[in-house]
Known about the structure:
The protein is an alpha/beta fold.
Amino acid sequence: xxxxxxxxxxxxxxxxxxxxxxxxxxxxxxxxxxxxxxxxxxxxxxxxxxxxxxxxxxxxxxxxxxxxxxxxxxxxxxxxxxxxxxxxxxxxxxxxxxxxxxxxxxxxxxxxxxxxxxxxxxxxxxxxxxxxxxxxxxx
Length: 139
């Protein structure tokens, strides 16, 4: 049995296969997922598991170089936005690198999920609770 915090085999496998600049998307329950993009569905019911619980475990396992969010999260879900940014700032210190945070329109964000190695669907049911995490290197 794996000793780390991330026990989900599908999520662990997709992170292990990431190369530099590849990305995954951590999504709320409502984000449309393109048919050709692999879906890892963790949602059980509304709010379970919540976005931040999934996001925190994934970032313990993944070297993060950049993050992308829909600009709407800043105004329509500012509490979650602030929690994501605070976690990424703490992660910078832990990893010893700068994590670039960028914003795009929600329409552009949805289009870019087509290039995600996987979309990890949470049970989060708050607006714009989605982030793309771009893989860095540990050396």
